Amino acid sequence: MYVQRSKPKTFSNTSSFLNAGYILNVTTTHSPDSLYSLTRLIITLFIAIVGNAGMWGIVVIMPNLGDEFQVSRSVLSIPYTLTMLGFALGNVFLGRIVDRFGITRAIILASLLNAFGYVCACIFDSFFALAFFHLFIGLGTAVSFGPLLADISLWFKKYRGIAVAITASGNYVSGAIFPILLGGLISDYGWRISYFLLALSCIFIILPASFFLQRRLDKKYSDEQERQASIMSTSSRFKPLTLQIILSIAGICCCVAMSMPQIHLVTMCVDLGYGSQVGAEMLSLMLLGGVISRLISGVLVDFIGGVRTLLLGSSLQCIGLILYYPTTEMNSLYLVSLIFGLSQGGIVPSYAIIVREYMPPQEAGARVGIVIMATVIGMAFGGWISGVIFDATNSYQLAILNGIIWNFVNILIVASLLFFGTGKTLERKIA
């Protein structure tokens, strides 16, 4: 239930909080851009960092699974594909729970699903049983992305772009930390013990943190956001459903391209003779660059709009993929991985921002979840098709070329979206 105070208590002198150049009005009410909003953002970022470990854990253990179960590269991609499938479904399912019951209940359910998946995956000796339980890991991990983005977007108005970008960066901060952390744990104790420790983190870290997010936005502010979304939707040439479908198709194309380096970089380094630890370091470097890219993109969104930011990120990602094509030397791969991370980090948050600008706030969880689901489907399909191409050619060269083609289609869709109507609308921010 929303809590409405007839006479909100405020400080006699409204103070200001300066954070990275952004000034937030501090009041005792739960309004957008308040001190409580900033506190909520910090807690949300913490949950996002820890909660997204499941997405990167499977990437790191893939070489270990290949050695233990002796399966082909395309079969080896199945656990990741099922993780992404669960992640996609979870963004929609848990997004609807957020819209109806709030983010805390969604995180509690997700933590239990996540822990269940980790424990079952590490106690079964069958590869396909292990792969199946990664569906639950994906379902639980999903709450740390789309649902959190949707929730935090309600708590910021003027600086919504940077707030969403900071939350989304939790995914890449997680990717920068956990591949190295898990790589060390796996070397010392094996992947099964590492997975059990991830299960404990869900129960004893993420679940307790969720109780700090029980507050809901005051109803008068949610009503105001709904009116603004209605104005934005009316002024666009696209109906909300049409825009959502277009963005979903673009998201699939973009993430098919994105998936090749992110999913197969570790195994590619193993094939080149550099070892999985070097691959994990490259992946962490890529995702660290992604954190920087997401923060910069968040600032850009607040000034040039989501569509233009999305087009810029998509174009830079294509350049990064092209650089991967001729690169096999180790130091060059480190550099290209950093460049790729710096180029594409702001893409997925831009999709969420565009949806949020045009959709009613009470539908934010489900609407953002659907578009995020599309991007995850792209990641899952891209990871699988890259494995298939490798098995057919014994090389990742054509897999990289496949990503470039999909990326170019995404650029055409976003450019058309900008040309036919939404870009100008998004520029006219409602004060």
Any overview of this molecule?
This protein has helices at residues 35-51, 53-69, 73-76, 78-101, 103-123, 127-141, 146-153, 160-189, 191-210, 219-235, 240-271, 276-304, 306-324, 330-344, 347-358, 364-393, 397-419, 422-427, and strands at 15-19, 22-26. The chain is an all-alpha fold and 431 residues long. The protein has a single domain (29-427), classed as MFS general substrate transporter like domains (Growth Hormone, Chain: A). A two-stranded antiparallel ribbon has the order 1-2. Helix 4 (78-101) packs parallel to helix 6.
Number of strands: 2
Per the principal axes of the C-alpha atoms, what is the gross shape?
Answer: globular
Query: Would you identify the CATH architecture?
Result: Up-down Bundle
**Overall structural domain count:** 1
Mean pLDDT: 80
Cross-sheet strand order for the largest sheet: 1-2
Indicate the percent of residues in helices. Answer: over 70%
**Class by SSE composition:** mainly alpha
Task: Report the sheet-strand fraction.
Answer: under 5%
Q: Which radius of gyration do the C-alpha atoms yield?
A: 21 Å
What is the string of helix and strand elements?
A: EEHHHHHHHHHHHHHHHHHH
